[in-house]
Each structure stands twice: as structure tokens, then as C-alpha cells.
Amino acid sequence: MNKSILGVIDATTSNVSLEPLLTHRSLAAVPFGGRYRLIDFILSNMVNSGIHSVAIFPKYQYRSLMDHLGSGKNWDLNRKRDGLFFFPSPSFEAELSGIGAFNHFSHHIDYFERSKQEYAVISNCFTVNTMNFQPALEKHIQLGSDITELRHHAKSLQMYILKTSLLIDLIKTRKRTDFTCMRDVVESSTHNYKISRYEVPGFAKMIDSIECYYDMSLSLLDPSTWKELFMKDYPIYTKVKDEPPTRYSNGAVVKNSMVANGCVIEGHVENSIIFRGVKIGKGAVIKNSIIMQKSTIGSNCSLDAVILDKDVKVESGVSLIGKHDHPLVLQKGSTQGALMSS
Amino acid sequence: MVKVNCVAMLLAGGKGSRLNSLTQNLAKPAVPFGGKYRIIDFTLSNCTNSGIENVGVLTQYQPLLLHSYIGIGSAWDLDRKSGGVTVLPPYTESSQVRWYSGTASAIYQNFNYLEQFDPEYVLILSGDHIYKMDYSEMLDYHISRNADTTISVIEVPWDEANRFGIMNTNENMEIIEFQEKPEFPKNNLASMGIYIFKWSVLKDYLERDNENPDSSHDFGKDIIPLLLQEKKKLIAYPFSGYWKDVGTVSSLWEANMDLLKEDCELNLFDYDWRIYSVNPNQPPQFISETAVVAESLINEGCVIEGEVRESVLFQGAHIGADSKIVKSVIMPDAVIGKDVYIERAIVSPSVRIPDGTHIYPDDDSNEVILVTEDYLQWKKAQ
């Protein structure tokens, strides 16, 4: 029998380096892997671990996040009892510091107090991995820990397991203890809590910069990464769309790429991630690039090391070349015309 | 309950025996089509896109998968508080089990379902055709002509006309004669199996048909001829878009191949008329370093390491390295090994094709091979 766990996702984090992708969305809602958003991974991990109550704490630009999550139906979190909860920050001014900012939580303390789950998992919203929280919880109980910090390759994953009652205490006593978030507690030596570490098996990566986002995306093309992320028993859920299958024309050449549905591919695609509903014209050559939803690339374009956000239009004949250690990012909805680049 | 104008009755009990083993455990409307859809998606999506929110789906043959697929209709936005989709299987009455003996008896036995809405009009559909059609336009036509019954018709090739119910009309599109699968058709206007009735008229004829012990309780064979005989106003509604009865292995294959044409009339990419479906939760398709893909339609969840040309691949299909798939349909979760050659075939769901297998029709045959576990056993024994 599963030990009951409450899921808490801190979606307040922002990151300067990822800014070009964050003008209209929170980090949690950054598109990833052809059809997902970053939050899909942690949310699916929670659901696949038998977590039925998940609270999401966003702060900035959460419209796209709310649109993505909806009622939680796609994650089976549209429930009469428990389900998906959305707790925006009561003010933009409120200070934030680190994963599980207690001040933000304190505004929604009722949720924690009403929850019946004995344990809670607190997590960031930008880790890409596939895991089950139950073995970590088993270990937590077995060791008699107060707080377990989940780690990967001996580095904190900014995910924590603790008793819900302890979490409530930490939130309520934050002014006296000066602990503002989970990391403060874990890194402090001024308390007597028993802190343990748990090494998460498999693949895990925190997306904290554009370069990291780019490398991590392209590493999905490595079959071993692919296999560790997309497991049959632990599906990654996302908002489904009614896109038709992707259509490859007679002249299409596609190699070593991940392609989502609803695309029409007439050109050459190599070593790239193509999101849903992308159109790639005849004679276009796309290499080492990430093309997000509904972007269109005209004929005879040449793209290398480029990230196109959603709805970007690249007119015919345009050449866009970024660096492999510093990809070129085009913002959502922008148009790259032949005249502009000449 | 709010009075509804038009209720659709979707006949989905078809056995589809000409699809051979594809329909052994599956009703024909649930047969996979077009890389991610099932045949019934087209009719259900037409209903949603036409603004028809009350749809009764009549099932009988192998209903398990069809029932779970339709569910509460949420995939087609038909999970309404009032109405929406209702699955209508045959049921027992106190004295007897009432199997649906014909299309008309199926509707008659769901009299209560229709009565609760007391609609003005009833739209009768079949769940085994591939087409896009705005039923609200047909309904407007039906109303403007003040018809008792409107039957949607399409021009079919003359040499195929003997496979269909043929409508002979006068210049006002009034139907004056109906020939069911005539040896010598006078016309090439075929019935698409889509009828709109005034409920008051349909009610009367269904009740009379039920009393008639000589009737086979079928719209084409009994109800339509009787309406004609009694000089009711029957109007043909001409339809000109893509329409295909995918009743045989080769027509199912052809309809899939039609989707690959550059100028395909059935546009799946038209966002104003989406074909809704239960979306499987699958990762994007992975096209490997060694893959070649051209003129194909490929769904999410596929892994392709070999060559795919002029083919349709459903979710979860895996094509091994050095394999070549030509002019074929690969159904969900079929796994094709290495060094395999397949041409002009439909590979059944979840079939595993061993390395080195070669499957293609004889040189000059127009055959389409249906690849099943049984076929592979037979081939191995050869």
C-alpha cells in the first residue's frame, strides 16, 4: 500500500538566462521535448507515484501555466476528493527565496492543514526526470529522518520529503527561525532535525540556463536518455491536442530527430526537436535546432543552433545561425523576414 | 429537458466481416484509420463540428472496445450535462432479448431514447464511413424543402454503382425510385447511408415496420421503399466531398493511401474542421540517424530506424534498421524487426514481424496483404 503523500510544486522560480523564453510564461510552462512543458515531468512523477493531491504555487505570468494545466484532467487530477490546486502568490512584491518559499505557503496554510496526507514532497518545477517518490519515502521512514533531500550525482535536486505536520511547523515558525525555504532548513546547523540524502537513480537534470535547456533538449536524441525518460510504466502526461499525425512529403529528409504531431515536413531536418504543428518548407535545412509549436519555416531557409519559440515565422530564404554553446533564440510570435536579416 | 431540434443516431454495430481478421475482436467503426484515428471518429467529429450535441451510438457486435473508446464522449466534446453521447447496446425486455435485427429495428428499439428528447428531426448515420460533412447544412436543406426524408447522395463511379443503393431522382432532386445494389443501375447517385427524418414520420413508419412480420427491418430494404410507395416526400441531398466506405481490406488500404496524396480532398490539417480522437499519451516520434522517411503520415510514439515510403504509421509502431516499408499501413504498436521488406500491406495492431521477413504481393496482383499473426505462421510454414 502506498504511503500517502501530498505534492507541492514551487512554480515561482524564474531564471535570468532563460529570459527570452519567459516573456509570456513561467519557467514551469517552458515548452520542452516536442510536446511537453517542464512542469509535466514533476507532475507526472507525482501522479505516477500515487500522489492524488498536488498544490502548485506560481507567481509570475501564470496564465499559460493555468491554460496548460486546466482542471488537471490530463494528469488524472480532476478529482472530487483532492486533485489539483493552484495557489498564486497574493502579491508580486512578496519576497521569494528558494524552493518552497514559506512565506508564499503561509498564505495558503489552510490547504496544508486540511490535507490528510501524512507526508509531503516539495519540489521545484524545472527538473527533467522520470522517477517514483515511493522508494525515497520508504528510505525516509526507515532511517527515521525528519527531512530527506533528494539528490542526483550528489547534488541537490531541490526536492524534499518531510511530514506534512513538520512542514506546517516550519511555515508557522518561519519568522522566529529565519528559515525562508526548504534549503535554509537543510543547510542550517541550528536545529536538531535529522536530515538525510537520497540519491535519485536514472537520469535527472535541472534546467537553469538557456545553454542547459538547449543541451538537455538535444540530449533527448540519445537513445539512452530517451529510454530513461520515456518509460512505459511511467508515462509523462501533458495537455493533449487533437493534431493529425505528422506528414512527410516526397522531398523530406529527416535524421536523428524528435518530431511531434501535426507537422508538415517538406525540407531537411537533422539533429533537432520539432514541436506540434510546425511547418517546414521545401529546401529548408534545419540542424541542431529546437522549433516550438506552430512555427513556420519557409522554403530554402537555413537554420543551425537556433531555438524558435512558439508561432515564429521565418520567411523563405532566411539563414539563421547560432553557436552550439550559445544558441540563437527567437521570441514567441516574432517574424524573421528575408529583408531583416540581409 | 430542453427541447432539441435534431438527435443523431449513429449505427455502430457493424460486424465488417469483409475486413477479415481486423474485425475479429473489433466492431468495424473501431478499426484504426489514418495513423491515429478510428473510423467512427469521422462521424462523431462531424456531429460535434455540425453542432449536434445529442448522439445515440447503437452498438451490438464486439462492443467492449468501442464502448470504452467512446466513454462519456469527452474526446469529441460530447460529454454534456444534458444529452451528449449515449451508448445504446441491445438489451433484454422482461420476456425477450431484443437483438438489433436490422438498421430500422435498432432505431425502433431505442424509441425511448428518442422520445425523451421529442426532437423535430432525427439524423441517422453509419459509423463506418470516412468523410467530413456539415450535417447542419443538410438539415437546413431538409427543412427548406419541407421533406419527410432527406437522403444524402454522392456520385460514384459507374462501374461501382452496383455495390450501392442507387437513387433515381427527378430534376427537383425528389427521389422517385430506389434500387438496392442494382445489377443495371440507371444512375450513379449512391446513398451514403445518411438520412434525416421528420421524427413524426419516422415514428409512424418504425411502428408499422415493427408490426410487419415480413419486414427485414432495414432502412434500405424496407423503410425507404415503403415511404416511396406511399408517396412521401423524399429528397436527395447531393454531397460532393471525399467519402469512402472502408468496408474491405483493400478499400481501407486505399483510403489510407488517399491521405498521402498532395491534393488529398480529406484534409486532416484543417483546424476549422478537426477530426477529434482519443489522444494516446505518447512521446514524439523518433526518427533515427539511419532512417529515411518520405510521403508518409506518422503518429507520435513511433520509432523509425529504417526506410518508410508512402505509408501510414500508427502510434507505437517500431521500424527496425535496414527495413523498408512501402505503400503500407502499420497499425498501433506493431513491431517490425530488422531487414524486413513490406509492400502493399496492412500490418495488424501489435503484430511482431521477425527480422528478415519479406512481404509483398505477386508481381501483377492488385492484392493488399493483411498481415496478422496467423498470416506470419502460414508464411513461415510455406
From TrEMBL, chain A:
<keyword id="KW-0320">Glycogen biosynthesis</keyword>
<dbReference type="GO" id="GO:0005978">
    <property type="term" value="P:glycogen biosynthetic process"/>
</dbReference>
<feature type="domain" description="Glucose-1-phosphate adenylyltransferase/Bifunctional protein GlmU-like C-terminal hexapeptide">
    <location>
        <begin position="252"/>
        <end position="319"/>
    </location>
</feature>
<feature type="domain" description="Nucleotidyl transferase">
    <location>
        <begin position="18"/>
        <end position="148"/>
    </location>
</feature>
<keyword id="KW-0548">Nucleotidyltransferase</keyword>
<keyword id="KW-0808">Transferase</keyword>
<dbReference type="InterPro" id="IPR005835">
    <property type="entry name" value="NTP_transferase_dom"/>
</dbReference>
<dbReference type="Pfam" id="PF00483">
    <property type="entry name" value="NTP_transferase"/>
</dbReference>
<dbReference type="InterPro" id="IPR011004">
    <property type="entry name" value="Trimer_LpxA-like_sf"/>
</dbReference>
<dbReference type="Pfam" id="PF24894">
    <property type="entry name" value="Hexapep_GlmU"/>
</dbReference>
<dbReference type="InterPro" id="IPR029044">
    <property type="entry name" value="Nucleotide-diphossugar_trans"/>
</dbReference>
<protein>
    <submittedName>
        <fullName>Glucose-1-phosphate adenylyltransferase</fullName>
    </submittedName>
</protein>
<comment type="similarity">
    <text>Belongs to the bacterial/plant glucose-1-phosphate adenylyltransferase family.</text>
</comment>
<dbReference type="InterPro" id="IPR011831">
    <property type="entry name" value="ADP-Glc_PPase"/>
</dbReference>
<dbReference type="InterPro" id="IPR056818">
    <property type="entry name" value="GlmU/GlgC-like_hexapep"/>
</dbReference>
<dbReference type="GO" id="GO:0008878">
    <property type="term" value="F:glucose-1-phosphate adenylyltransferase activity"/>
</dbReference>
Automatic annotation (TrEMBL), chain B:
<feature type="domain" description="Nucleotidyl transferase">
    <location>
        <begin position="8"/>
        <end position="261"/>
    </location>
</feature>
<dbReference type="InterPro" id="IPR056818">
    <property type="entry name" value="GlmU/GlgC-like_hexapep"/>
</dbReference>
<feature type="binding site">
    <location>
        <position position="165"/>
    </location>
    <ligand>
        <name>alpha-D-glucose 1-phosphate</name>
    </ligand>
</feature>
<dbReference type="Pfam" id="PF00483">
    <property type="entry name" value="NTP_transferase"/>
</dbReference>
<comment type="function">
    <text>Involved in the biosynthesis of ADP-glucose, a building block required for the elongation reactions to produce glycogen. Catalyzes the reaction between ATP and alpha-D-glucose 1-phosphate (G1P) to produce pyrophosphate and ADP-Glc.</text>
</comment>
<feature type="binding site">
    <location>
        <begin position="180"/>
        <end position="181"/>
    </location>
    <ligand>
        <name>alpha-D-glucose 1-phosphate</name>
    </ligand>
</feature>
<dbReference type="GO" id="GO:0005524">
    <property type="term" value="F:ATP binding"/>
</dbReference>
<keyword id="KW-0320">Glycogen biosynthesis</keyword>
<feature type="domain" description="Glucose-1-phosphate adenylyltransferase/Bifunctional protein GlmU-like C-terminal hexapeptide">
    <location>
        <begin position="290"/>
        <end position="364"/>
    </location>
</feature>
<dbReference type="InterPro" id="IPR029044">
    <property type="entry name" value="Nucleotide-diphossugar_trans"/>
</dbReference>
<protein>
    <recommendedName>
        <fullName>Glucose-1-phosphate adenylyltransferase</fullName>
        <ecNumber>2.7.7.27</ecNumber>
    </recommendedName>
</protein>
<dbReference type="InterPro" id="IPR005835">
    <property type="entry name" value="NTP_transferase_dom"/>
</dbReference>
<dbReference type="InterPro" id="IPR011004">
    <property type="entry name" value="Trimer_LpxA-like_sf"/>
</dbReference>
<feature type="site" description="Could play a key role in the communication between the regulatory and the substrate sites">
    <location>
        <position position="99"/>
    </location>
</feature>
<dbReference type="Pfam" id="PF24894">
    <property type="entry name" value="Hexapep_GlmU"/>
</dbReference>
<keyword id="KW-0808">Transferase</keyword>
<dbReference type="GO" id="GO:0005978">
    <property type="term" value="P:glycogen biosynthetic process"/>
</dbReference>
<feature type="binding site">
    <location>
        <position position="100"/>
    </location>
    <ligand>
        <name>alpha-D-glucose 1-phosphate</name>
    </ligand>
</feature>
<feature type="binding site">
    <location>
        <position position="191"/>
    </location>
    <ligand>
        <name>alpha-D-glucose 1-phosphate</name>
    </ligand>
</feature>
<keyword id="KW-0119">Carbohydrate metabolism</keyword>
<dbReference type="GO" id="GO:0008878">
    <property type="term" value="F:glucose-1-phosphate adenylyltransferase activity"/>
</dbReference>
<comment type="similarity">
    <text>Belongs to the bacterial/plant glucose-1-phosphate adenylyltransferase family.</text>
</comment>
